[in-house]
Design goal:
- With about 375 residues, this protein is mostly beta strands.
- Strands 1, 4, 7, 10, 11, 12, 13, 15, 16 and 17 form a ten-stranded antiparallel beta sheet that branches.
- The longest helix is centred in the first third of the chain and has 7 residues.
- The protein is elongated, with a radius of gyration of 31 Å.
- The relative contact order is 0.12.
Length: about 375
């Protein structure tokens, strides 16, 4: 796994997998962390005048075992056949602090009488129905009291604002910035398996088979009241690699090595609202079903993901290598070939159910920022 991703990053990593011996040997290990042993984050959420430490559960555990392959009464692999097996697991629940800017409860009801700029000036909300031209200028009137009447509020908008969390802290400035803060948890479940068998066919022939498996599945808890509004996307990632090699000593001057590699990987990211029809409950028309749409509102935290689904599987690679080494006096020569066919099937739907963008300029007064 490391070598495969090392190449894609522009580097080369060479790793050696241990082999078994004539004696059965093994190791066990465990590493852990817990938030009860840590200090609270500087920007942690505050409850009852105390900072709340974000949850942390971090465990790394596993073991190795290696030795001869022995089948009682049938086969004694001493000096001939060896196995090696290793497992490492990681379970990490790591708390993080999340700060959002969300609409106030008055704003959700159409009341913008307290909506101000960072400098403290009232943000006027103009009525688009009053648009008119006077003296060559386009004019609009401010809603009375800067409040949009309830019967003018869009039904879909009223459904959508319910996906925002309720502000829980004093804003950083008069505009209401960063008025929500809470802890959430990033989750990593990782499994690594290595299995290897080495066999000495003859004094001049050695074969080896190795299998590697790795999974890196990520997930997270959500600070949104309804998870479909979450912007962070979990991922499912699995990798399988199988290696085989045959090394033959033809003579003291000639060695031939044949290697084969097969890799199969999965990468699948899915937003929290994927797989459901949200258009109907939200009251939207003409929107493809299958995911929660993304809502990008200037000045506020986004709702929904702009990476709703990406499927990459199968991702497959085959590698065939033959190396022939020849030593003549002071000279060493190496010949061979390599063939590496690969295959990547991908479906990328970052906006499977669309994206809605809202700017505060839409119903503003022309010429007035």
């Amino acid at each position: 796994y490391a070598a495969e991703y090392g190449r894609s990053a522009g580097g080369v990593i060479i790793a050696t997998t241990k082999s078994g011996t004539n004696k059965l040997k093994g190791t066990l290990f465990e590493y852990l962390r817990n938030e009860k042993l840590d200090a609270a984050n500087l920007f942690a959420a505050v409850q009852n005048n105390d900072k709340v430490r974000a949850p942390l559960r971090y465990n790394v555990f596993g073991g190795t075992v290696g030795g001869p392959v022995v089948i009682p009464k049938l086969y004694n692999g001493k000096d001939k056949t060896f196995f090696f097996f290793a497992y490492e697991g990681q379970r990490r629940h790591e708390g993080q602090v999340r700060t959002l800017t969300v609409p106030g409860e008055l704003e959700k009801a159409g009341n913008f009488s307290l909506t101000r700029t960072a400098a403290g000036a009232l943000v006027p909300i103009y009525d688009p129905a009053t648009t008119r031209t006077e003296g060559g200028r386009i004019l609009r009137d401010v809603f009375p009291g800067n409040i949009i009447p309830a019967n003018r509020l869009d039904a879909a908008a009223k459904n959508i604002v319910g996906f925002y969390p309720v502000g829980n802290r004093a804003a950083d400035n008069a505009s209401g910035a960063n008025n929500f803060r809470a802890n959430y948890v990033n989750i990593l479940n990782r499994n690594n398996v290595t299995a290897k068998v080495d066999h000495q066919l003859t004094s001049n022939d050695r074969v080896s088979v190795r299998y590697l498996y790795n999974s890196d599945n990520t997930d997270n808890t959500s600070v949104f009241p309804r998870e479909a509004g979450e912007t962070i996307v979990p991922a499912l990632r699995h990798q399988h690699f199988t290696y085989g090699s045959w090394t033959k000593v033809v003579s003291p001057e000639m060695i031939n090595e044949i290697r084969f590699t097969y890799g199969d990987r999965i990468n699948w990211t899915q937003s929290a609202g994927l797989g459901q029809d949200w258009a109907t409950p939200l009251g939207l028309r003409g929107v493809p079903a299958g995911a929660f749409p993304a809502f990008v509102v200037t000045g506020y935290t986004n709702l929904g993901s702009t990476a709703q689904e990406r499927k990459q599987f199968p991702i497959r690679q085959w590698q065939f290598i033959d190396n022939f080494s020849l030593v003549k006096g002071k000279h060493t020569m190496k010949f061979g070939f390599e063939m590496r066919p690969s295959y990547n099937y991908e479906v990328n739907r970052p906006l499977a159910s669309g994206q809605f963008n809202f700017s505060p300029l839409g119903t503003g007064l022309p010429g007035t920022a």
